[in-house]
Write a structure and sequence with these properties.
The complex is a heterodimer of chains A (388) and B (386). Helix content of chain A is 35%, strand content 18%. Chain A has 388 residues and is of the alpha/beta class. Chain B is built from 16 helices and eleven strands. The model of chain B has no long low-confidence stretch (mean pLDDT 96). Classes of the chains: A alpha/beta (388), B alpha/beta (386).
Chain lengths: 388, 386
C-alpha cells in the first residue's frame, strides 16, 4: 500500500474579474500564474507539472482550448493536462492538482483556471444553448436561466421559501464584494432592489444572477517537503470530493443537490470531518444564482434541508457570523468567469486560513474551510476541504 | 516495480462509420465488455472513479461529461473529463490509484468521428484565432510542412514513409478491431493523390468510429479481479507549445519529454533493449518514424533505415504498430491512444491471436493529439510483476 501524502497550497494569484477585459485568455492565464508563483516565492522552473481548468470551448470559439492556453499557463515542455467538469471545473482543477502531487508523481503542480466569456457574441449565454441534448432539449429553445428558474421554483415550493429570503444572499454577497479588489459587481443594495430588478425568467430576476466575466486564478501546490521549505504558512488540502448525477435531469427532484452531498461526504470522509457545521469555520459554496448558495449550503451538510434561508436571515452566514458563507463576495459580487470563479473560491479560503484576506478577513482565526463548485446540467458537485 | 494494473478492457469498433450505434451505445457496449473482463465488477459499487476523455468540438456539445454517467454506470459516481487523449486519461487514473485513496478507476475514450460533417473546419478552430487561423486553408497543411522539414533534416525518403503505410495496413489485416486493413504497395502509396505536399492521401490516417473502456486497479484489487494483470510500469506526458511559430519542426519534443518521464518512472535505462514492441501514433506516415526516434528507440534520423531493414515488422526485432496503428485502425480522435494501449494489453496477455508477438513482456504505447497540437503521452506496460 502507498503512504498517503499530504499536499499543500503555497501560493495563489487572481486577476481582475471584468466584462470585456482586453487581455487574451493566454495573457490572463499568465497574469494569474505569475502572481501565484510570486506569492509562493517560486520560479516557473520549480514547477514540475501544470493542470489547466477552463470551461466550454464555445466561449472563445477555440477547439482544444486547453492546448491553446498551454503556454500562457507556463506549461511549455512540461507535463500538462486539462480537466473539465463544466461549472464545477474551478474547484475540480485543484483536486486534479492534488492527485498530481499526492500520487508522489510530482513535488509541485501549478493549477491554472482561466475563462474568457466575453469573446462570445452577442452574449456568452448563447454558448450555453449548446450544453443541452441535441435531440430532446435543444429544439425547445432551452436556456440556462430557464432551467435554473425551474430549479429555484422547485426549491422555493418544497420548503415554502420566499423570494425576500433568497434576495438576502445577493445583498450579502454583493456587499461582501465591496472589500474585494478584483470584484466586478460589488454593490450596496437592498432586498427591494433585488425584488424590483428585471424579471429574466420567473422567479429569476436580474440581481439574482452573477454576471458573465473574464478572469483567471492560479494556485501553486506542493508536497509536504517542498511546502515546508517555501513557507511557514502552508494550507493543506485535507479532503477532495466530486460527484456526477444522471444526465436525465428531468427525472430528478431538483429541490436538493444529491451530487453535492455525495461529493461533500467523499471530501469530509477523507478529511475526517464528522460534524460539518461544527468543524468547518467558513465556506465558499458556489453562488452563480442567489438561491444556489442556500441550495449548496444544504448539500454541503452545513445545515438541514430548507434551513439555509433562515440562517441567512439570522445573520449566521454574514462575514462576522458564526458560519461565514462567501466572505469573498462570491460569484454574485466578485464575478463569474466560470472556471476562474470556482478557483477564486479556493483562493479565498486559502487567504482566509492564512489570515491574509485583509478587509474580508473573517474573525475567529479560522482553521478549516470548504470551497465548492457546481456544474453540468444541474448534476455536478466538486468539493475541497482546506486546513491550516 | 509497479503498483497499478490494467485489469479489464472492452472495445467496440473500429469502423469507418457505425450508424447502428449512437455514441452512448458505443460507450455502453465497451463498458459492459470491460467490466465483464475485469471479473464482472459492478460499476455502481466497485468503481472509485471514472475518467472520460473528450473534447467538446468533436462531440458537438458543450460540457460533454453531462452526457456520460448513465451509460458507464457512473450515476452519482466520481466521474470527470480529461480534455485529451485516452492515454492522458490513463495517466490521471494511474495517479489517482497511486494516491492510495482509490482502488479501481475506469477510463473511457471514444470516437464518433462519422458524426462530424466538417472535420477540417473543426480542426481549424484549434488554431490560434488571432495569428494563424486567419491564414485560412486546410489545417493539415501543417503536417505537410512538418513532413517536408523532417525529410530535409533527416534524409528520410518518400519511399520510407510510404513503406510505413504498407506495413501498417498489412498488419491491420490481422486485427479484427482495425477498419482499414489492406494489402498495398509502396508505388500505390506514392501514386496516391498529393494532399499536403509532400504528404500523400494514403499517408493520412482516415477517421474511424469506436470506443474503448479500461479498468485500472491497485495491486491489491488487481490480484482479486484478474489472473492476467498488465502492469502500468510508467507514464509520461508533455506539451511542447501550441505556438507554430516557436515549436521544433523536426523533432517531436513532446514525445521525448514524455518518454523520458515514463522511462524514469519504469526504471528503463536502455529502451532499445528493454522494450519488446511499440504501439505509437502514426497519424501521418512520417510521424511513425519521427516518434520512433523521439522515443529513443533509434538515433535521430535512423528510423527510416530501421524500417527498411525490417526491424519494425511484426516478426522483426522491434515490432511497431502490430495493431495496424492509426493508419490501419483509423484515427479515432481521443481514443487513438487507447487503441495503442489496447493492443499493448492484448499482446501482453497473449490474446492477440494471429498477430501475437511471441514472448512479449514489455510494451510501449504512445500517442500524439494531432494537428495542431504538440502534446503526447507514453505508457510503459509489462506482464511481469517484479
Amino acid at each position: 500500500m502507498f503512504g498517503k501524502k499530504r499536499v499543500a497550497i503555497v501560493g495563489a494569484g487572481l486577476t481582475l474579474f471584468r466584462r470585456n477585459l482586453k487581455e487574451t485568455g493566454k495573457e490572463l492565464a499568465y497574469e494569474a500564474s505569475k502572481m501565484a508563483l510570486d506569492a509562493a516565492g517560486m520560479e516557473l522552473s520549480d514547477i514540475q507539472s501544470v493542470v489547466m481548468g477552463t470551461a466550454p470551448d464555445a466561449f472563445d470559439g477555440v477547439h482544444m482550448k486547453g492546448e491553446y492556453l498551454a503556454d500562457g499557463a507556463g506549461a511549455r515542455n512540461k507535463p500538462y493536462v486539462r480537466v473539465y467538469v463544466g461549472g464545477g471545473t474551478g474547484v475540480f482543477t485543484p483536486l486534479a492538482g492534488w492527485w498530481h502531487v499526492a500520487s508522489g508523481q510530482f513535488d509541485t503542480c501549478l493549477v491554472v483556471c482561466e475563462e474568457k466569456m466575453s469573446s462570445c457574441f452577442p452574449h456568452p449565454a448563447y454558448a450555453f444553448t449548446t450544453i443541452f441534448d441535441n435531440i430532446l432539449a435543444r429544439p425547445l429553445g432551452t436556456t440556462l436561466i430557464w432551467i435554473f428558474a425551474l430549479e429555484m421554483h422547485r426549491y422555493m415550493h418544497k420548503h415554502n421559501i420566499k423570494k425576500e429570503q433568497i434576495a438576502r444572499v445577493a445583498v450579502k454577497n454583493k456587499r461582501n464584494a465591496l472589500d474585494h479588489p478584483c470584484a466586478q459587481l460589488a454593490a450596496n443594495i437592498t432586498v427591494e432592489d433585488v425584488l424590483n430588478s428585471e424579471i429574466m425568467c420567473w422567479p429569476v430576476q436580474r440581481l439574482d444572477i452573477s454576471p458573465t466575466s473574464d478572469g483567471a486564478a492560479a494556485l501553486v501546490l506542493a508536497s509536504e517537503d517542498v511546502a515546508k521549505k517555501v513557507t511557514d504558512n502552508p494550507v493543506w488540502i485535507d479532503g477532495v470530493g466530486w460527484c456526477i448525477d444522471s444526465t436525465i435531469w428531468t427525472n430528478r427532484d431538483l429541490y436538493y443537490p444529491d451530487y453535492v452531498e455525495y461529493a461533500a461526504r467523499m471530501a469530509y470522509k477523507m478529511a475526517g470531518i464528522k460534524n460539518p457545521p461544527k468543524e468547518i469555520d467558513l465556506a465558499e459554496p458556489y453562488d452563480p444564482f442567489d438561491y444556489k448558495e442556500l441550495h449548496h449550503m444544504e448539500g454541503l451538510l452545513l445545515c438541514r434541508k430548507g434551513e439555509a434561508p433562515k440562517l441567512t436571515e439570522e445573520g449566521v452566514t454574514a462575514r462576522d457570523g458564526d458560519l461565514p458563507i462567501c466572505p469573498s463576495g462570491g460569484l454574485l459580487g466578485v464575478g463569474n468567469p466560470i472556471a476562474a470563479a470556482g478557483a477564486m473560491k479556493v483562493c479565498e479560503v486559502f487567504w482566509q486560513l492564512r489570515g491574509e484576506a485583509g478587509k474580508r478577513q473573517v474573525p475567529g482565526d479560522p482553521r478549516t474551510g470548504v470551497a465548492q463548485a457546481w456544474g453540468d446540467l444541474m448534476q455536478y458537485g466538486s468539493v475541497i476541504v482546506l486546513r491550516r | 516495480m509497479s503498483d497499478v494494473a490494467i485489469v479489464g478492457v472492452g472495445c467496440v469498433g473500429f469502423k469507418s462509420i457505425m450508424p447502428e450505434l449512437s455514441y452512448k451505445e458505443l460507450m455502453f457496449e465497451a463498458a459492459v465488455k470491460a467490466y465483464e473482463d475485469a471479473g464482472g465488477i459492478d460499476p455502481r459499487k466497485d468503481v472509485d472513479a471514472f475518467v472520460t476523455c473528450a473534447e467538446d468540438y468533436w462531440e458537438g456539445f458543450s460540457i460533454f461529461d453531462e452526457f456520460v454517467p448513465d451509460q458507464l454506470g457512473a450515476v452519482l459516481g466520481h466521474l470527470f473529463t480529461v480534455s485529451g487523449d485516452g492515454l492522458l486519461g490513463l495517466a490521471n487514473a494511474y495517479m489517482l490509484i497511486k494516491t492510495g485513496h482509490f482502488d479501481v478507476v475506469v477510463v473511457e475514450a471514444h470516437s464518433k468521428a462519422s458524426d462530424i460533417l466538417t472535420f477540417y473546419d473543426i480542426v481549424a478552430f484549434a488554431l490560434d484565432p488571432i495569428m494563424v487561423r486567419p491564414l485560412g486553408g486546410n489545417p493539415y497543411y501543417i503536417a505537410g510542412m512538418e513532413m517536408h522539414r523532417y525529410l530535409a533534416e533527416t534524409g528520410t525518403t518518400l519511399e520510407q514513409c510510404a513503406e510505413v503505410v504498407v506495413k501498417n495496413k498489412r498488419n491491420a489485416l490481422a486485427n479484427p478491431y482495425a477498419a482499414y486493413g489492406a494489402d498495398i504497395t509502396v508505388d500505390q502509396v506514392l501514386d496516391s493523390e498529393t494532399w499536403f505536399y509532400p504528404l500523400k492521401k494514403l499517408e493520412v490516417s482516415p477517421l474511424s468510429d469506436g470506443c474503448i473502456v479500461m479498468v485500472l486497479a491497485s495491486e491489491r484489487m488487481a490480484k482479486k479481479l484478474t489472473d492476467k494483470p498488465v502492469w502500468v510500469e510508467g507514464v509520461g506526458w508533455a506539451t511542447e507549445t501550441p505556438n507554430l511559430e516557436t515549436r521544433d519542426w523536426c523533432r517531436a519534443i513532446y514525445t521525448e519529454i514524455a518518454a523520458d518521464m515514463a522511462y524514469k518512472d519504469a526504471g528503463i535505462t536502455c529502451p532499445q533493449r528493454e522494450i519488446d514492441f511499440v504501439e505509437l501514433s502514426d497519424l501521418f506516415a512520417y510521424k511513425e518514424l519521427q516518434h520512433l526516434e523521439a522515443l529513443r528507440l533509434c538515433r535521430y534520423g535512423e528510423a527510416g533505415m530501421l524500417l527498411e531493414d525490417g526491424v519494425t515488422t511484426r516478426d522483426g526485432d522491434l515490432p511497431v504498430n502490430v495493431s495496424g496503428g492509426c493508419l490501419g485502425m483509423g484515427y479515432a480522435l481521443e481514443a487513438s491512444g487507447m487503441q495503442r494501449l489496447l493492443e499493448a494489453v492484448l499482446q501482453l496477455r497473449g490474446e492477440a491471436e494471429g498477430r501475437q508477438i511471441p514472448d512479449a513482456e514489455v510494451g510501449l504505447a504512445h500517442t500524439w493529439r494531432g494537428i495542431p497540437t504538440a502534446t503526447g503521452a507514453v505508457a510503459v506496460l509489462s506482464n511481469i510483476k517484479e
